[in-house]
Amino acid sequence: xxxxxxxxxxxxxxxxxxxxxxxxxxxxxxxxxxxxxxxxxxxxxxxxxxxxxxxxxxxxxxxxxxxxxxxxxxxxxxxxxxxxxxxxxxxxxxxxxxxxxxxxxxxxxxxxxxxxxxxxxxxxxxxxxxxxxxxxxxxxxxxxxxxxxxxxxxxxxxxxxxxxxxxxxxxxxxxxxxxxxxxxxxxxxxxxxxxxxxxxxxxxxxxxxxxxxxxxxxxxxxxxxxxxxxxxxxxxxxxxxxxxxxxxxxxxxxxxxxxxxxxxxxxxxxxxxxxxxxxxxxxxxxxxxxxxxxxxxxxxxxxxxxxxxxxxxxxxxxxxxxxxxxxxxxxxxxxxxxxxxxxxxxxxxxxxxxxxxxxxxxxx
Length: 364
Hints:
mainly alpha
């Protein structure tokens, strides 16, 4: 969209917007009354994202039509025709392939709604489409719209700066959340294994499945009994919550090796931060590569006798609890999966490159 919107065109858009919203505001303010105008506005906004096609052409014509009609209307009333364009904004060029499919589906849905809508609703949809397309021609609305759009595809040969992920919430809250996910997964897997263990291999058919069915009904009965007990004595919920939080806290605690004999006070090494130990381990596995997959780190841990029974999800939750960012799709050797970037480690933990000791591997 390259057409700029004038002040008179913006005034005309404001009049159309006011004419559509005033009956709703002065009425009972039923949200359903805004549905026709909202559908049209959505079509106008997504059309402003298109660089071509029918939607792109209509979105490009909307500011021109609004500016021309607004100038004539203002000139007819005041005798002055303002023609200076406002600061122009644009959403075109930010649409990805996935976004194009979404825009197509939105357009088809609005067209179907248009065909079934009554005459008054069709007028409201047309006004919404005009307002959505023209408002996106201004810099402010284009900036707000670009904030919710998917990022532009990465240009070949251009290096992008890694974005720093903001860690939300208190470290204690993050640790409890990560531990809760670990406890929930472990408990569900244990219960599923217990139910499946009831199947008898020496039988076949429904007789073999009778054991798991009985165990499943037993679990349902226990769950119902616990629910009835909590309803009868609500204070038990506080006890169950405390037990759950204790299990979640212990699930993310650093693994300590207690097989070795305790050293004397003079021989004991200084305590090391679990986050620094994990970073040292990651840098050891990384080497001089730009990143490393969590599956490779987990294999390295299990090779040294650590992390037995862990899965990639367990390692990811522990790293995130320590404040180490994990990329959901880190592409290395053509394979996109969860991993850690070396640039993130250097930025968040700017320490000297040293080879981690076996004690750091155990602490991690």
